[in-house]
Amino acid sequence: MSAIRLLVLGAVRQHGRAHGYQVRNDLEFWGAHEWSNAKPGSIYHALKQMAKQGLLRAHEVGPSTAGGPPRTEYELTEQGGEEYLRLLREALTAYDQKMDVLSAGVGFIVDLERSEAVALLRERVRGMTEWRSSVTDYYTPESGPESLGHIGEIMNLWVSSADFGARWTLGLIERIEAGAYVFAGEGERSVQVLAEGERNPYATGVPHTGDEE
Amino acid sequence: MSAIRLLVLGAVRQHGRAHGYQVRNDLEFWGAHEWSNAKPGSIYHALKQMAKQGLLRAHEVGPSTAGGPPRTEYELTEQGGEEYLRLLREALTAYDQKMDVLSAGVGFIVDLERSEAVALLRERVRGMTEWRSSVTDYYTPESGPESLGHIGEIMNLWVSSADFGARWTLGLIERIEAGAYVFAGEGERSVQVLAEGERNPYATGVPHTGDEE
DNA sequence: ACCAGTCTATTCAATCTTGACTACTCTATG
DNA sequence: CATAGAGTAGTCAAGATTGAATAGACTGGT
Predict the structure, then answer these.
(1) CATH classification for the domain delimited by A3-85, as one of 2.30.40.10, 3.30.70.120, 1.10.10.10, 3.10.350.10
(2) Mean pLDDT in residue range A45-70
(3) How many contiguous H segments (helices) and E segments (strands) does chain A have?
(4) Which residue among B149, B154, B175 places its CB closest to the CB of A190?
(5) Is the distance from CB of A43 to CB of A4 less than 8 angstroms?
(6) Using CA atoms, how far apart are residues A61 and B122, in angstroms rounded to an integer?
(7) Secondary element (H or E) of residue B75
(8) How close, in Å, is residue B213 to chain A by CA atoms?
(9) What distance in Å separates the CA atoms of residue B85 and residue A213, rounded to the nearest whole number?
(10) Which of A38-52, A142-156, A173-187 has the lowest mean pLDDT?
(11) What span, in angstroms and rounded, lies between the C-alpha atoms of B195 and A181?
């Protein structure tokens, strides 16, 4: 699973009704263009695709006063709402190494109830621990781990990384259980979106990118 | 950058000349189907694309004795060899969070000289540290980090993860400097490939997968 | 001898991703 | 007032990825 659908559904959901550019701006505001594949092309593609699949309802709207081509606004259908929650739960539980998916899940975690959030994160930790032992069992040759040579470093990387992920998740669980943040049903939510016309303080200045590409 | 080109170039290079199925089997042997997008479709696509771009030379070969369709064998061109080294160096230096790329880089690291490997890894650490401070500077609002609410957890995740990456890289550097493994120009290489007809001990049993999809 | 299953080897359509491009409006500046 | 630049909003073609499908040859059991 890529993070894009969850991000787009989440952004549209916050607004109730939003057009592509608004979604794009929100994702940028959240820093998602830094840690996910939330580029304009992907966002518009996801919107169209999900509209085709009945997760979003599309409304053609005249061009905005601010210039530019006519916009299409979207809102979640009931099916889209369910898919959003399904993706969110999956993002928090999946114990593989996709940081963008996890990040998106954390970004929307407060849309769940506190107890469910904790349960999902615990499940995540359980999965990681299990995966860890299955990997170490499976890839440790009879001839001892040294026989893997430098290839063993890859295993080491993945296992350490799973350990790191589990530790981090446990830390988050602790903070949540200690009462941090406001979850669903506990008062007004706090996922921020940009108000209509508001300036994005974290605009595409591209202040720090990866090394590659 | 995705890891697929590096993996495919590396696999072909090991053999001197290889067809798609051989590459696929090698990647599976290395466990790459577990930690990268090295699925058949991607492998064949990469081979064709790189042949089109002059990185690989293609040779049509009659169908093997073992049945199946006629195969195409590939070997690196000079340009392909350069591209391989470029991708390898980039994979080891890039300090973003793409574990598959790093894994592939580690898998082929012994194709470099020991001193260069260490230099690239040091550069990696340097980049990560710099990125870390630029992120913490940039995304820490005047109102204090608490004002970010649960969104701060995303930053925390990325920063911790960079710290983990840096620590792990330093560990690897240490082991390499202590004399571990056999690097280019130090005797016979040790990246394993499957010999023609050899059985893959880590065949597609798919013993442990991620949670999602 | 037959059939199911597995191995060899690759192709394909559908979908997703990327980076560049379009086109229009508003604003500041000399 | 011309015009460069930035902001608004979205499209497009090329490339990458995925999952399933194809098809012949061998293998083991009944």
Answers:
(1) 1.10.10.10
(2) 86
(3) 8, 3
(4) B149
(5) yes
(6) 53
(7) strand B71-76
(8) 6
(9) 15
(10) A142-156
(11) 56
